[in-house]
Structures are given as C-alpha cells and as structure tokens.
Request: fold
Amino acid sequence: MRQEEIWDAEAARRYDTPGTGMFAPDVLGPTVDRLAALAGDGRALEFAVGTGRVAVPLAERGVPVSGIELSVPMVERLRTKVDAATIPVVVGDMATATVPGEFSLVYLVYNTVANLLTQAEQVACFRNAARHLRPGGRFVIELWVPELRQLPPGRQATVWHTEDGYIGLDTYDVLRQRVVSHHVRFGAGREAQIFRTPHRYVWPSELDLMGELAGFALESRHADWTGAEFTGESRSHVSVYRLPG
Reply:
C-alpha cells in the first residue's frame, strides 16, 4: 500500500491520543521547547505535519509554522484544530513538495523519514529540506536506531512493546533495510485489530552521509529532545543538521 492509503480517515481518527503516548506532556513538551529554540526568530516547516501534534503547540509558542503532508485525512483533522492561515499546509510528498518562502528550521519527527522506502527518496528529502532553508538554517530529524542486535540467527521479528490490549512488533528484511511495524490491539474477545506500516530503517552514519550529499553538516546528536547523551545503547536520536552560512 502507498503511504497515502495507509494514513486514511480511520488512521487519522485514531492518531490523536491527547495527554498520552506521544501526546504526553513529558514527550511533547521537550520536543516543542527544543524546536522553538532552534527556530529562533525565523519560520519553521514541518515535513509530514500530520494532525498537528507538534505544529499546533509550536505555533502557540509564537513560531510561524507551515507544513507538508501527504495524507488529506490527516490535514482534515488538523483543520479541526487550526485554520489554514495559522498553519498553512501543502498536500504532497515531503521529498518533492515545496512551500513558499524561506525558513530557519525544517523538522521531521517521530521516525517519519523512514516512511520513505528507498535511499534515493530519503536523500531527496534532505535536499528538499535544504532548498527551503535560509543560509545557516537547520534540519532536525528524530529517528529510532535499528534494533538488529535483538535478532538472533533465523529470527525475523522483534516485540518492541507490550501492554494490556496491545502488542507492537517489527518484522525485518535486513537485505533491503526494510521493516514493517505491526500494531495489534485486542480486547477480551477472540478477535484483534492490526495496523501495519512499512519503513526503511537508516543507521545514524548513513543519515549523516545523506546530509552531506545535500550540503549539511551534523551540528549535534542527542538521545532525546532533552539533550541526553547519545550512546551505543540509545534506542533513538535527535540529529540537527545545519547548512553553511
């Protein structure tokens, strides 16, 4: 399935979980704080803006925010929160779509660069960020670290989260750097609901090379939005790339 088919009206409806999960204050607060500081007095552009999880509170902080989003249903849900004058959105692919104006910050959060399923598309995403930025502008990516060390010989899947009524597991194709995330939700009955999303995982060093190809230099890398040290045991990273100028 294409990404725009995956992120349909039902997925958009289920995406928002106010106050919990990735909408929890301890997750969202540090994200918005860091992005507001990086934007400074300039404008921010969010690739894959979705339903506005980050863009809405960032705009409320006084940062002018625009977005690019492939899924029309996600944009429609965003429009129940803010109008197009507050957060203008271009419907299109974040690797190719363009937004008028110049920005001090482009950002891509919550592993979404991996929704681009080829290396060429991911490189194009970096280049698209560069063409939107003013000299000295920054491109920020939040991304998970592939957990291949959890795959013993012969195993193709890892369970990454379990709780009452939910199991999250990933199946890997290590030859093509592909992973499919399976989100299984169930109740007391015999039936369950499953939602699948395909991704292309990227190592931090590969991401840095993509940045170089687009004219960026790595400015910083931390394990999370609070600035924790990135180590060999970190499960994710927040990487800041900067253009010359």
